[in-house]
Amino acid sequence: MDDNRITAYTFTRMQPQATEADFLTAQREMDAYCKENGYRIVGSAFTKEPSEKMASVMDNILTDMKNKNVELLVIPDISRLGRNTATVVDIVKAFAVEGIDIEITADGARPTELFAPDAELFIQEM
């Protein structure tokens, strides 16, 4: 086993009506994604908290990730971080500032790259 693999932490926010089976399915999908990409999972979190509480939830996850020296947060979709764009941007920025990437399993995108110190801003003329 390669100890130099990227360390990952998986997270998703489930709907309030989600069942134990839903949690297990989501965990299996996240685990499979990490295995497929050669990531070593060192932590996982799931919540049913509403979008309004995501800033606090993600602050706790960021603290846990920093304590474990985790490099990457793997999430199924950017919408799992919240419904409010400003809140999602603040969460992504907080991770970028700490040097922790966020990767979305739906498309492999890394929104934290937009906030890297050397990132070029993309401005579309209207």
What is the gist of this entry?
This protein has 126 residues and is an alpha/beta fold. The protein has helices spanning 20-36, 54-67, 85-97, and strands spanning 7-13, 40-47, 72-75, 101-104.
The amount of beta strand, in percent, is 15-25%
Q: What is the arithmetic mean of pLDDT?
A: 88
Query: Count of DSSP helices?
Result: 3
Q: What is the helix/strand order?
A: EHEHEHE
Main sheet properties = 4 strands, parallel
Question: Gyration radius, to the nearest Å?
Answer: 15 Å
Distance between termini?
Answer: 51 Å
Which regions are unreliable across 5 or more consecutive residues at pLDDT < 50? none
Secondary structural class:
alpha/beta
- Give the proportion of residues in helices: 25-40%
- Which strands sit side by side, in order, in the main sheet? 2-1-3-4
Total beta strands? 4
Shape: globular
Tell me what the structure shows.
The chain is an alpha/beta fold. 35% of the residues lie in helices and 18% in strands. It contains three helices and four strands. It has helices spanning 20-36, 54-67, 85-97, and strands at residues 7-13, 40-47, 72-75, 101-104. It has a four-stranded parallel sheet with strand order 2-1-3-4, with helices on both faces. Strand 1 (7-13), helix 1 (20-36) and strand 2 (40-47) form a beta-alpha-beta unit. Helix 2 (54-67) packs parallel to helix 3. The longest helix has 17 residues, at 20-36. The protein is globular. It starts with 6 loop residues before the first strand and ends in a 22-residue tail after the last strand.
